[in-house]
Amino acid sequence: MDTKRLILFVVFSFSILLLWDTWQRKHVPVSEVVSQQDASVPSSQKLNTTDAKTISPDSNFKLETASRIKVLTDLYQIEIDTAGGDIRRLLLNNHLADNGQDKFLLLDDAQKPLLYVAQSGLIGNDLPTHKSMFTSEKTNYVLESGQNHLDVKLNYKNQDVEVVKIISFDRDSYQIGVRYEITNHSKLAITPSAYFQLLHDDESNQGTSLAPTFTGGAYYTEADKFKKINFKDMKKRDLSLISVDGWVGVIQHYFASAWILPVNQKREFYTKQVADNIYSSGVLTQLSSIQPGEKKEFSTKLYSGPQIKEQLEKAAPGLTYTVDYGWLTFIASPLFVVLNWIYKLVNNWGSAIILLTVLIKLLFYPLSAASYKSMAQLRELAPRLQSMKEKFGDDKVKFQQAMLELYRTEKINPMGGCLPILIQIPVFISLYWVLMGAVELRHAPFILWITDLSLKDPYYVLPIIMGISMIVQTKLNPAPTDPMQAKLMMIMPVVFSIFFFFFPAGLVLYWVINNLLSILQQWMINRSIHAAALAKKGNAARK
Question: What pTM was estimated for this model as a whole?
Answer without folding.
Answer: 0.81
